[in-house]
Amino acid sequence: MRSLWIDEEAARCHTELALRVYTSRLLGREPALVLHGGGNTSVKIVEQNLFAEEERILYIKGSGWDLRSIEEAGFAPVRLQPMLRLARLESLSDPAMVNALCTHMTRASAPTPSVETILHAVLPYTYVDHTHADAVVTLTNTPDGQERVRELYGDRAVIIPYTMPGFDLARLVAERFPAQSSQHTIGMVLMNHGVFSFGDSAQESYERMIELVTLAEDYLAAKDAWELAVEPAAIAQQALRMEMVALRYDVSQVIGAPVIVAADQHPRAMAFIQRPDLQEISQRGPATPDHIIRTKRLPQLGRDVSSYAQAYRRYFERHRDDSPTRLTMLDAAPRVVLDEALGLCTVGRSAQDAAVVRDIYRHTMDIIERATRLNGYQALPEKALFQVEYWDLEQAKLRKNANPPVFTGEVALVTGAASGIGRACFESLAARGAAVAGLDIDPMIESMWEDAEAAGMLGIRCDITQDRQIQDALERTVRAFGGVDILVLNAGIFPMSCRIAELTEQAWRDVMSVNLDANVNLMREAHPLLRLAPRGGRVIIIGSKNVLAPGPGAAAYSASKAALNQLGRVAAMEWAGDNIRVNAIHPNAVFDTGIWTKKVLASRAAQYGLSVEAYQRRNLLGVKVTSKDVAELAAEMCGPVFSRTTGAQVPVDGGDERII
Ligand code: ZN
Fold first, then answer.
1. Which of 431, 484, 492 is CA-nearest to residue 635?
2. How far does residue 607's CA lie from ligand 1's centre (Å)?
3. Residue 453: pLDDT above 80?
């Protein structure tokens, strides 16, 4: 592992806290050190209080902050002296500890200090860095891990046997560290958990972390346990979406809410899953205890969710009485599913959550394989892991999103999503928590949302008149998110005005093929997916005022939209039994779309002898109708307010005499 320290960058940090932020971010940039909120760092600084007295303040990572993006505000300033006294107590309950940490802060608005605050306090060094480095964790998760670590580090690192994080660990370290450390000590290894480094300066502490980790990597390399070959694993080429959708349905049932299931078919993952000893090596536990709240203790092998859930309930029953307090069982569903065909499937309430689980498990697979090359992967005993999984301070990390948005865990697919109403629908659904796939013939769709797939936004270039491309788009969507719950049929073309007498067969067919035929195909292909939507499927047809009040010169467009509308009404009847709602909305005079350039708008307004402003408000209510207005209605119609409505047609046009 190489140091990312750059003198010029560091020179821009003028305080110790600024340097603490700098090297914390360097640690956070390396996923083989820490992942998604893991690890923590601190610095002890002498400051003057309001009484002009000098006090030592421990700046420690606040809970909820990620090392990769932490700022000065993410460090909680805690008075050091009371922390050292706390470490000498015989015992301290979690609520009392958290209360003590918070009441000894010098800034009331600071985040809650890390649960490892007392541990950082007792280590007698200015800078303290803590990570769950893959290489070190690999060594400690082997049957003779302790000897290996001792052999590797000698007196450079103090070794602490596994103890539950929090007060007990801090107390143990306070007790053992002074006796076991020497002037050679640069770090500390917590068995089955991670590694600490310390120093007088930010650079020293950070570079010692890199040094300790590099030593572990070199050790593994020397034992031929570092390079992991990417075996050319067989990766299924056939469509897998029905299998994915069924898996997601089952997981959602156990959790009691819709979830995102993301499939990862990276060759490394496939090579791991296809190992003949998978059953044996994968069923031992996570690499470091705090991963358990993301990955659960064990991955599910294959697709039998109900057996997994039964086993999880038995595990809960085995350990529930270990706790002094009455525990409520968490949901019994897996977070990681390893399947020979589907690959590494990860489960989350949102696409972001599923991506976090994927990242953690990718590292877990490497750790397991490397430890297996040494002399076997050995995780903590079930009981110790249960204790962390049901530790209130761990669960609190997941409770931050207690009121998720309405479509959390659901998946929407919007056609014609690169601009206008389609793009607005994409955004309205995403704003309500859905993972959204946006289809468009415009290649721009692929790059519209940067780094977006992990954030639940997927742009797919797709000509919906091509059946093959529809199939591929559905396949990609389902592999990314696990299903399709909401389908918004928006893509359409609006040709130049043309009377029937002049209408060519080709012009007629072009309109029909996009506005009608493509939608029939998409509805047919999406139906089996919508049928397995955990909360029931929803289809929104973006119709047109022309369906109810046609005008001359738009025969093909009006006929195609009317036919699509009728198709939706039939679907509402045919699919009600599958718990799929189909509704249409009829926008009119939405001028913030691609076809309405300033020039077109001005010339049209002139035709009516109106100003552009007056022309845009030419409806009963005298309001402008924007793409966003249409999109918000579309999104609401997919939500609980319209849960008893199917086969409806709702205009969104500011009121039109011909329609009323
Ligand atoms: Zn840790």
1. 431
2. 70
3. no
Rounded distance from Cα 325 to ligand 1 centre (Å): 24
What is the residue type of 137?
V
pLDDT tens per residue, range 224-282: 999 887 776 677 778 899 999 999 999 999 999 999 999 999 999 999 999 999 999 99
With tokens 């009377």, the residue in question is 499
- Please give the distance, rounded to the nearest whole angstrom, from the Cα atom of residue 641 to the centre of ligand 1: 44
Structure tokens at 641: 């307010």
What the block records as the tokens of 181 is 């450390």
Let me know if 22 is a catalytic residue: no
Q: Which segments within 351-456 are labelled E, that is strand? A: 411-415, 435-440
Contacts of 326-333 spanning 24+ positions with Cβ under 8 A: 327/390, 330/389, 330/390, 330/395, 331/254, 331/255, 331/256, 332/254, 332/308, 333/251, 333/254, 333/255, 333/259, 333/305, 333/308, 333/309
Distance 38 CA to ligand 1 centre (A): 7
- What residues does 131 pair with on adjacent strands? 195
pLDDT higher than 80, residue 403: yes
Query: If we measure between CA atoms, which residue out of 625, 597, 613 comes closest to residue 421?
Result: 625
Residue 143 above 90 pLDDT?
yes
Give the torsion sign (CA, 223, 226, 227, 232): positive
**How close is the Cα of 192 to the center of ligand 1, in Å?**
10
- Residue 405 clears pLDDT 80, i.e. is over it: yes
Whole-model pTM over 0.90: yes
**Structure tokens given for 649:** 């047609």
CA distance 463 to 416: 10
Residue 128 to residues 20, 43, 168, 178, 190: CA-CA distances in angstroms?
A: 9, 6, 19, 16, 14
Beta strand extents in 473-603 (DSSP E only): 486-489, 537-542, 580-587
**Interval 570-597: pLDDT, tens:** 999 999 999 999 999 999 989 988 778 8
**3-state secondary structure string, 609-628?**
CCCHHHHHCCCCCCCCECHH
Catalytic residue, chosen from 219, 249, 312, 557, is 557
The amino acid present at 309, given as its one-letter code, is A
Phi, psi of 361 (to 5 degrees): -70, -30
